[in-house]
UniProtKB/TrEMBL annotation:
Organism ancestry: Eukaryota, Fungi, Dikarya, Ascomycota, Saccharomycotina
Keywords in alphabetical order: Glycosyltransferase, Transferase
Domain called Phosphoribosyltransferase: residue spans: 11-139
Record's GO cellular component terms: cytoplasm
Pfam families: Pribosyltran
Protein name per UniProt: Phosphoribosyltransferase domain-containing protein
Amino acid sequence: MSDVQKIYISYNNIHKLCQKIANEILERNERPDIIIGISGGGLIPARIIRTFLKQQGQKNIPIQAIGLSLYEDMGLEDGVEKIGKEVIRTQWLDFGALSEHFDSLIGKKILIVDEVDDTRTTLHYAISELQKEVKEQQVKLNRLDEETAFSIFVLHNKDKPKRAELPKDLMESGHYLVGETVPDEWLCYPWEADDIEEHTRLAKLQGND
Ligand SMILES: O=P(O)(O)OC[C@H]1O[C@H](OP(=O)(O)OP(=O)(O)O)[C@H](O)[C@@H]1O
């Protein structure tokens, strides 16, 4: 394992990436109505970016959490054992405590946030399920003419072949927002550090500060 390159990410670095992307969003006049953080790692950038998306006189953008876990699924394909990844929902949207403006995602600008796009399995699952849910509700509530706009923000996108895709229109219209594209190495996030001082020192040495 000694040849595995570790990339250390500091809290400062994360803070600045969130600020950078928030500025891009605001410059385009696309402040989201709601942020959906993918638990657990996505909740941290979700909370930080909310600060930078706040505008005077406007209410804080609500954050909803969805919980998605990847687990290794050993299956057989054409008689050959194959390891795949399956996504399990551990938590989903809950509009219960929000105002009447938030009975659904229909017609909203939605920002989905996660810390890393690795194989893309999680993000693919999240946006497909959310889009499906919006469509079903539009039919049910007869609100077919309202346009719902999804964006995705990740701190890091790993430059590697992906196992799943994101909607073409979202990618091509610049609504897939990446703090930084990184090589396919081991990303060490600060919330996992035993020794945060040493972690931050290493991140600084690598320029991730
Ligand atoms: O692009 P993918 O290959 O789908 O991987 C990315 C996902 O993996 C991590 O979640 P993890 O289940 O490890 O949990 P955590 O967020 O709680 O750390 C990460 O937070 C992403 O959600």
